[in-house]
Amino acid sequence: TVWVFRSKPFLVLGRISYLQYLMQHVLQGWIKRTFGWEDNDTAKLLFIPALLVFSYCCQRWVEKPYTEYQRWRQERGVKGCDDRAIARVEAVIAKLPSKRRGQ
Questions:
Q1: Cα–Cα distance for residue pair 93/33, rounded to 1 Å
Q2: What span, in angstroms and rounded, lies between the C-alpha atoms of 40 and 57?
Q3: CB contact at 8 A, 48 and 42
Q4: Is residue 20 within 8 Å of 49, Cβ to Cβ?
Q5: 3-class secondary structure for the chain?
Q6: Could you give the CA distance from residue 64 to residue 52 in angstroms, rounded to a whole number?
Q7: Is residue 37 within 8 Å of 43, Cβ to Cβ?
Q8: Per-residue pLDDT of the chain (103 residues; tens, 9 = 90+)
Q9: Is 70 left (phi over 0), alpha (psi -120 to 50) or beta?
Q10: pTM for this structure?
Q11: CB-based contacts of 10, cutoff 8 Å, min separation 6
């Protein structure tokens, strides 16, 4: 059974599972507004395959490139605006009297 779960289809499903969870309501809402949902059996039938394709596309062209960019940035020590904002907030908190910091 180990080889089954290490097969390409299961590995792809594992990679896109979180995106499926996140995108199910987005896609269903769009289908509901565009094609109708209650009386549309075709939309209900095609929802799961469409969700798989949509999630794969989001993973392939959004999540993966952004993750690679974050790794690249971390390896080279490039600070982004989010890193600078967090550093500023931490500096302000460090200057507060200890009573305000809960100590």
A1: 46
A2: 25
A3: no
A4: no
A5: CHHHHCCHHHHHHHHHHHHHHHHHHHHHHHHHHHHCCCCCHHHHHHHHHHHHHHHHHHHHHHHHHHHHHHHHHHHHCCCCHHHHHHHHHHHHHHHCCCCCCCC
A6: 16
A7: yes
A8: 788 889 999 999 999 999 999 999 999 999 999 999 999 999 999 999 999 999 999 999 999 999 999 999 999 999 999 899 999 999 999 998 876 555 5
A9: alpha
A10: 0.74
A11: 4
Type of residue at 73: R
Range 73-101 burial, b when 16+ CB lie within 10 A, else e: eeeeeeeeeeeeeeeeeeeeeeeeeeeee
Which amino acid, residue 25? H
Q: Can you read off the two tokens belonging to residue 36?
A: 């109708």
- How many angstroms separate the CA atoms of 84 and 17, rounded? 32
Measured at the CA of 38, the angle between CA 35 and CA 43, to 5 degrees, comes to 45
